[in-house]
Fold these 2 entries.
Entry 1:
Amino acid sequence: MREKVNGNELYYNKLGQGAPLLLLHGHHLDGGMFDQVVAPLSLYYTVYVLDMRGHGLSEGEIAEHYQTEVEDVATFIKQVNIRGCYCFGFDAGGLVAMMLASQDQHVFKKLMVASVFVNGNGIRPYHYLTEGVLRYLHFDRDSQVELTESFMSVDSLKAIKIPTYCVVGEKDWVKVEHVRWYSQIIPQGQLLVMPRQKHNSYAINSFKLLNLMEDFFK
């Protein structure tokens, strides 16, 4: 399915019945990262899987700013009439969801984010110095946005008033202590560390978060 959002046709998949659940992918990915979990989640929810602009089957150039993606998601939610939905966001998709939740207190009912860092202190040095910088130097826009705009202030974190589950892999390049720190600032924040999991291993084409999502969003 397609929806014209802020000048671009964005592709999304819709499946199931019940309360709406929006899934947001990370940078360098698209909604296909959720292929394993869409069908089982659709037994309980109406699942919306959105390709952000410039990703997957959506039109447009990759956004130069996170706020552009925040506005795209907000507009999409309004146009398909799912305000007050549940939301799961991975990586940059999780940061976009957190930014939106801090700006609009009623856009989501509950929020789960995985492998999100909210400032430069949240990245392990080896990742920043290898993959991150190399992609930046090759003018990879997703990486440029992540390395220059991944920031939420303490006040903006405190402005997220809804129940928020913050998940991170034990061996993630996002620091566990960083996720623990901001999960304690969010008024209704919770933390879960996924044992032995790396950044991509538990959320991309994986069932590992399925039961957790079903329990948290019910």
Entry 2:
Amino acid sequence: MADGFEQMVDEALTFFAKLDKNNSKDWFEPHKAHYKDAIAAPAGFLANLVAEDIARLTGKPHSPKVFRIYRDVRFSKDKTPLNTHLHVMWSPADKDALAPSWFWGLSPDYFIVGMGVMGLQGDSLTRYRAFVDTWGDRLQGVLDGAEQSINAQISDWGPSPLKRVPKPYSPGHPHGALLKRKALAVSAPMPADWRIQGVLKASVTTIKGLLPVWEMFDKHL
């Protein structure tokens, strides 16, 4: 059953389409109040509701965050000031660098839910590689299961993978593609009937489909 958040989705897609053609602070300022009232505020409400469901499903509290529309352009060649997407993240209370987070993304090009670990380096990267080496078969199994059930795919978010399998692992390692990664996030499109289910229920449906991957990370990573 529709829950009202579909209106937020429609407002956001219309807004981002216009912003994409007018990506400037001069255009945004007179439209800021509309963005806050029609998009950011309901997104915050949705984020709080989903946080409760994630805590119920995982048994662990998660803190929601709706990302700002303003881009950080300090180290980017692209100096357009505003994001043309709406992103939400739920971070676990566990501050371990390898505790997986959940995310939700909406733009004119995608509408997804996902989870994973990002920006691995140092000890966390070493732990991740040992995890893949030891549990790679089972990890690949749950990844394949999520792909079959909800069309989940490994996301290209995060640093680019290495070109070669890192030492001390064999170049022919059966899970070399996973070993090359410095982040591992998995995302799935929202169900095609999300308008009928409602955005909240459809989001939770996708989270449930990704839960076996989360459990693999949580238990063994």
